[in-house]
Design a protein that fits this description.
Elements (H helix, E strand, L loop, with lengths): L33 H7 L9 E6 L5 H14 L3 E6 L4 H11 L6 E3 L4 H16 L9 E6 L19 H18 L4 E6 L11 H5 L2 E9 L6 E10 L6 E8 L2 E4 L3 E2 L5 E2 L10 E2 L6
Parallel strand pairs: 1-5, 1-6, 2-3, 2-4, 4-5
Antiparallel strand pairs: 6-7, 7-8, 8-9, 8-12, 10-11
Helix pairs in contact: 4-5
């Protein structure tokens, strides 16, 4: 599969060092969530990044994304949260429970084309503003399995499966995000075994794969959540943060280790470095 994403013009004599990197990719965008920023590019998310966010059932992936959307708004960005999983009333209840102060733009659009059209309206509105007051657009879709396309028939006129529609919708959204430098987060499901519930092709489409798992201690039965970067085209993988689910959402541990796994007990700052993953669940 080849997406229709822009490429630089080259010839047989072009040297890779001659290619000019777009200014949008030169600097990461801080989201306001220091732990997510560290896991992605170290200091933020690269424009146009398409990220798959998965998690064990009940791990808190939607809570994480709602919190991220609120932080993005607080940083002055325009955050669109398209939900096909829960009603907007339910999402509003979550924002109230978490005590969020900034909010975000909610949507119940699940058609890829409708999400893109809404983004285009936002972009047109921002283009009308002075350049120094234009807001960057971020899109969060919850979830991948709910994405649909307006064309519900396949090439032979047969009904298109939900899985096929989700894949086509992801391709549309990915192409749009990359051609317009829009960071895109898409929540995906995993089964009870922790395996991704979808075509593995999807993992090749996205730039980053962020996974939130629940690690259960076999002796005490205590649960610990682990936010890990499993795939990253813009930074390291296998690094993670430990977190705890509270009434106010996910709280990440302040203690940190370096990417090499070296402990750093003296650093208790909020934006401390994530740990280096050592194998699977402990």
């Amino acid at each position: 599969m080849r997406l229709g994403i822009g490429q630089p013009e080259i010839s047989d004599s072009t040297n890779i060092l001659e290619i000019k990197i777009p200014k949008e990719m030169e600097k990461a965008i801080p989201t306001g969530h220091p732990h997510i920023d560290r896991l992605f590019a170290g200091d933020g998310v690269i424009a146009g990044t398409v990220s798959l966010v998965t998690g064990d059932p009940g791990a808190g992936k939607s809570t994480l994304m709602v919190d991220l959307a609120d932080r993005l708004t607080g940083k002055g960005f325009k955050a669109l949260y398209a939900s096909g999983e829960e009603s907007l009333y339910q999402i509003r209840r979550v924002t109230k429970r978490l005590g969020l102060k900034n909010g975000f733009i909610p949507s119940y659009n699940t058609e890829a084309e409708a999400i893109i059209e809404q983004c285009e309206r936002f972009r047109a509105a921002e283009e009308a503003k002075p350049k120094n007051k234009r807001a960057k657009i971020f899109v969060i879709v919850d979830s991948l399995q709910c994405i649909r396309v307006r064309r519900d028939e396949g090439q032979r006129g047969r009904p298109m499966s939900d899985e096929k529609q989700a894949l086509l919708g992801l391709e549309m959204l990915t192409e749009y995000a990359k051609n317009n430098w829009v960071p895109l987060f898409i929540v995906g499901h995993v089964n009870k075994k922790g395996e991704f519930a979808g075509k593995q092709t999807i993992k090749h489409i996205v730039d980053c794969h962020l996974h939130l798992s629940v690690d259960v201690d076999p002796d005490s039965g205590m649960e610990e959540r682990i936010l890990e970067m499993k795939k990253n085209r813009f930074g390291p993988t296998g690094c993670y943060y430990n977190a705890e689910m509270t009434a106010k959402g996910l709280v990440f541990q302040a203690s940190a280790a370096t990417f090499t796994g070296e402990e750093d007990d003296d650093d208790d700052s909020e934006d401390s470095a994530p740990k280096a993953r050592r194998g699977g669940k402990r």
